[in-house]
Inverse folding.
């Protein structure tokens, strides 16, 4: 598994409503698109498991078509991808197959015909958080993760081909991270997949295809190349005036890799100790780690703050739009709640103070944007994307924090999210809603404490308190949609974060420390029955009202 970076926790910036069902589905189609020699003219998507049941309500269908057209995950054209396909002359069809068993519940087969008449068949799995992998290519089991730049070579399985490919990679200065050969039988068609930390130059294709035993070669650049704000290369950073400064500036890749190993924090205790020994905030520690990580991969080491500035603007817009222009969601369950809350908060009857009232309104608003296929920043997932902007933007409005201070608070939140992801999970399908809303609430609580002048230990204590407050929260989306009870739970997560921060800032320590609390969360998630982990088969999703709305989802 690749080392997690800030963009993996705060992000992706994407079109909603679901990290796995929308962004992940799009990535499968986009990786497929990169393997085509020419433009696609016909595509059939066969959907299995959860995809088969909820592909319309989650916009999975629009995302898949958008991916085949080459749209990135945050492209505004995704909701209108059917019209774009018609204009591009792309015929598409969806075949839901809920009964066939697959290894992963979010699985799709993609059959594409390109303008040359060539056919490619791909099986992809959306594995959570917007990540995806290709597990079958033209009938042969493979593994393409999208985590690295990948070279995919179709060949005859004969001696010397693998060494030829490796020699070409070396000639072009590309370092091989992994190399795998996939085949059905000896001497028949096979695929070599080589992954690299480096960007693979297009010119390498001609050199590889010069071998008569090679049928064709394709390059699939890594997921980061599809982000709206990918990390910058040193050359691009210099051109745009983002010169490396401070810790980690001008490190060579090998130096950065060695330094990264020393500050690749494996626990909250390690991070707290590092911060206390060096007089740093959690945000400083995670940004030092990020600089080393990016430098070790050949990227500029100083652009994280620019990415987080972009995320803040996305968050701000995802709050504003539903308040000013309410829309119904894709599944029809929500829409208009944020405008009502905003009006109530500004009335004489409002029940709570302005910070909590705004946090409630803002978090609700982001989920409306998400459910209507608007642009949001997953933090750490699309289903929990309202908690952090709800808390941070409310604190900014009511306490006057600057965008620079919010930028650092987002980095702080990423530090907590990274530790939870590393030692537990942030996926509802694995750990229940405690893994999504609970993690987001912990991230927001820690960020709030830093904004209010708390210490690194207090940040970790607040995160532990927030997790404990939502421990055992189940994931039971009605109809399998990221709408209800998800929207209101984002508001609950925001309120829980503020309460945890308030408790901690008053001088109350967490009885059980952060690391042990994360361990408890992981154990509870594993103990939850499958019906309470994003299957829409239990909890609120199994109530009579929910089953009346979505009888097929209830079986």
């Amino acid at each position: 598994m690749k080392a997690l970076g800030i963009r993996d926790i705060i992000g992706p910036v994407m079109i909603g409503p679901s990290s796995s069902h929308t962004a992940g589905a799009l990535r499968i189609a986009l990786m497929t698109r990169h393997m085509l020699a020419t433009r696609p003219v016909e595509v059939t998507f066969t959907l299995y498991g959860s995809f088969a049941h909820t592909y319309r309500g989650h916009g999975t269908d629009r995302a898949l078509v958008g991916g085949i057209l080459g749209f990135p995950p945050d492209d505004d054209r995704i909701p209108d991808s059917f019209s774009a396909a018609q204009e591009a002359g792309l015929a598409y069809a969806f075949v839901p197959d809920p009964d066939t068993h697959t290894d992963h519940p979010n699985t799709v087969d993609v059959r594409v015909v390109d303008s040359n008449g060539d056919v490619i068949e791909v099986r992809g799995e959306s594995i959570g958080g917007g990540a995806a992998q290709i597990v079958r290519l033209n009938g042969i089991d493979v593994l393409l993760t999208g985590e690295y730049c990948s070279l995919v070579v179709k060949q005859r399985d004969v001696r010397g081909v693998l060494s030829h490919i490796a020699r070409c990679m070396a000639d072009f200065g590309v370092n091989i991270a992994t190399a795998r050969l996939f085949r059905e039988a000896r001497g028949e068609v096979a695929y070599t997949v080589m992954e690299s930390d480096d960007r693979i130059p297009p010119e390498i294709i001609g050199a590889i295809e010069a071998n008569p035993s090679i049928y064709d070669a394709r390059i699939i650049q890594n997921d980061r190349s599809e982000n709206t704000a990918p990390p910058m290369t040193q050359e691009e950073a210099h051109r745009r005036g983002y010169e490396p400064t401070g810790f980690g500036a001008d490190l060579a890749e090998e130096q950065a890799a060695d330094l990264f190993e020393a500050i690749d924090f494996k626990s909250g205790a390690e991070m707290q100790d590092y911060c206390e020994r060096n007089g740093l905030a959690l945000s400083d520690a995670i940004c030092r780690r990020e600089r080393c990580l990016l430098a070790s991969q050949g990227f500029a080491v100083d652009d994280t703050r620019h990415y987080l500035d972009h995320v803040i603007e996305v968050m701000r817009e995802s709050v504003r739009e539903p308040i000013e222009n309410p829309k119904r969601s894709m599944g029809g369950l929500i829409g208009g709640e944020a405008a009502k809350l905003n009006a109530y908060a500004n009335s004489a009857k409002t029940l709570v103070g302005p910070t909590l009232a705004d946090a409630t309104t803002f978090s609700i608003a982001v989920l409306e944007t998400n459910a209507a296929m608007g642009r949001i920043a997953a933090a750490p997932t699309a289903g929990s994307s309202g908690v952090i902007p709800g808390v941070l933007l409310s604190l900014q409005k009511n306490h006057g924090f600057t965008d620079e201070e919010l930028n650092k608070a987002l980095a702080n939140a990423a530090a907590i999210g990274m530790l939870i992801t590393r030692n537990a999970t942030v996926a509802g399908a694995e750990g229940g809603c405690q893994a999504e809303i609970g993690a987001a609430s912990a991230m927001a609580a820690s960020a709030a404490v830093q904004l209010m002048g708390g210490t690194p230990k207090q940040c970790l204590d607040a995160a532990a308190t927030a997790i404990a407050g939502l421990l055992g929260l189940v994931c039971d989306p009605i109809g399998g949609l990221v709408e209800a009870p998800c929207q209101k739970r984002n508001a609950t997560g925001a309120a829980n974060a503020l309460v945890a921060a308030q408790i901690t800032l008053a001088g109350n320590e967490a009885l059980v420390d952060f690391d042990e609390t994360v361990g408890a969360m992981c154990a509870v998630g594993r103990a939850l029955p499958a019906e309470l982990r994003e299957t829409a088969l239990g909890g609120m999703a199994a109530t009579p009202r929910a089953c009346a709305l979505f009888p097929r989802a209830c079986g």
Summary: The first strand starts at residue 13 and ends at 15. The chain has a mean pLDDT of 91. The two ends are 36 Å apart (CA to CA). The chain has three domains: 6-226, 243-302, 305-549.
